[in-house]
Amino acid sequence: MKHSFTIALMLCLFFSCKKANNKTEVTRGLITKNAMVVSARAEASKIGNDILKQGGNAFDAMCATQLALAVAYPYAGNLGGGGFMVYRKANGEIGSIDFREKAPMAATKDMYLDENGDVIPEKSTLGAMAVGVPGSVAGVFEVHEKLGSLPIEAIITPVIELAKKGVVVTKKQEAKFKKYQPLFLKANKDSILFDLPWKAKDTIKYPKLANTLQRILKYGKDEFYKGETAKILAKFIQDNGGIITEEDLANYEAKWRTPTTFNYDDLKVISMAPPSSGGVCLAQIMKMLEPFNLENHGQNSLKTIQVITEAERRAYADRSYYLGDPDFANVPVETLIKEDYLNGRMADFSFEKATLSSHVSHGNIQVVESDETTHYSIVDQFGNAIAVTTTLNGAYGSKLYCSELGFFLNNEMDDFSSKPGTPNMFGLIGAEANKIEPQKRMLSSMTPTIVEKNGKLYMTLGTPGGSTIITSVLQTILNVHEFGMTMQDAVNAPRFHHQWLPDEIRMEPNKFNSKLVSELENLGYSINEEDSPIIGIVDGILVLDDNSYEGGADYRGDDTAVGF
Ligand code: DON
């Protein structure tokens, strides 16, 4: 809602936050004058930042940060996964690249069903059958070739050094290794590096991954998709019962796509188009919210939570029916984000009572025919900005670890709709548009997003969190724009989520007061504070009035902003 900064920024932020949160403190993230990288690990942010300091641009830093996360953050950083990047150049030009995984050529619609047509537990989530053809290496090389400025040696060499030198285990990482060790044992024939009892402060070295990166540096993208690495990888996956072939790898290509854009007040939001549902759902939700005076209702107030929930409910119902890989299904993006269609969707909304999801289906339109991902945001000293969300899907992906190459493989196949109406690991339900087909990309919720204000770069942000990604990005943008928060406060603020089905508002536990929760329940909302200890790990950068940058690195992870 209309928000004009008429007094000095700090003062304004102070009062807005005081009003919204009933607290006087304002937390600020790192502030720098020239450039910044915010990512899930300090080591990766530092490597990206060093590239910028050497005179590289945001795209060079993207390549370095993506590869460094594959070393420092095996939980979600990856060579064996995929992702999306949205960018805005200093001259205002925008674009995006899709390096999402693809279904192997031998994939079939019913590959995860038994003879009774029921979904076979874990087949799409654990082990080799869950793996989609990885896209990250193709993404890095495509970005470097088209938009980078430094030689590739300058980008990959520090990452190889990091892999050789090793990375210190954090407390949060120690807990994650412990939690997933039973699944590592289940998914892998032999013991893997992460079966060891790693403790916080230990250093893990990655010599095999360093060798793989060394070969990639020497022979380029083809090493991963057609060279020795491809041969080892295809054989490894097949030896473990999977169906990815050398041909699948050789055929993989990243794809440039036009971002989904829309206006909200004086903002222009630039986000990822299908096969991500992020941009479309964010557009739908924000356009449904625009007529309401959220600023007056207040941040995380009863009315604000109600109206956001109802807009989310309707957008996720559309997601499940209409969205999929646009190379395979007809995805009516333009119609779905039209104002008159969205006004109609909210026509039955009332502050008096919750709408039941059983009463909400996808809209009728004329159709012409958990945090286990990771996000990083970068702005450079030239004014370019990028937002990248990348993933193995679940924590450590399929848990299948190729020891010879030194990396985990994704379980992205679970993002397809294995059976219409049956929820995937994020409880999301899909339909025809997202059925499994050979070489198709599975529908994603990843929402790397850049926001302009009055035609200028304003924010770059994103988050992991499966189905909750879209709503976490939404709330962070609203926290800054509607409620005047700093980037760090916007990231830190408690989050909630509704995704149509199951019909419940998921809330971060012990963050919302019990009176508010009872009021929502009295209006007919079902509240779930059990299942999501955290919702999203948002990393973002905000451009302040004096053109300096404020980083928001989420305390929910080990996320760190580094800049100069
Ligand atoms: O692309 C998607 O929507 C999912 N594969 C993202 C997975 C994710 O965010 C896991 N983190 N909780």
Structure description:
With 564 residues, the protein is of the alpha+beta class. It folds into 2 domains: 36-99 and 128-256 and 378-410, no CATH class; 257-370 and 445-563, Gamma-glutamyltranspeptidase, small (S) subunit (Glutamine Phosphoribosylpyrophosphate, subunit 1, domain 1). Helix content is 35%, strand content 15%. The protein contains 18 helices and 21 strands. The chain has helices at residues 9-21, 42-53, 58-72, 136-147, 152-165, 171-187, 207-219, 221-225, 228-239, 246-251, 278-289, 294-297, 302-322, 333-336, 339-345, 469-481, 487-492, 514-522; strands at 31-32, 36-39, 82-88, 94-99, 167-168, 203-204, 255-257, 260-264, 267-271, 373-379, 385-391, 401-402, 407-408, 449-453, 456-462, 496-497, 505-507, 527-528, 539-543, 549-553, 560-563. The strands form 5 sheets. A 7-stranded antiparallel beta sheet has the order 1-20-19-15-14-9-8. A 7-stranded antiparallel beta sheet has the order 7-4-3-11-10-2-21. Strand 12 (401-402) and strand 13 form a beta hairpin. Helix 11 runs antiparallel to helix 13. The radius of gyration is 22 Å and the shape is globular. The two termini are 32 Å apart. Residues 1-22 have low confidence and may be disordered. It binds 6-diazenyl-5-OXO-L-norleucine. 6-diazenyl-5-OXO-L-norleucine binds at residues 370-373, 391, 393, 412, 415, 444-446, 464-466, 469. The site of 6-diazenyl-5-OXO-L-norleucine has 15 residues, from loops. Keywords: Acyltransferase, Glutathione biosynthesis, Hydrolase, Signal, Transferase, Zymogen. Pfam families: G_glu_transpept (PF01019). Pathway: Sulfur metabolism; glutathione metabolism.
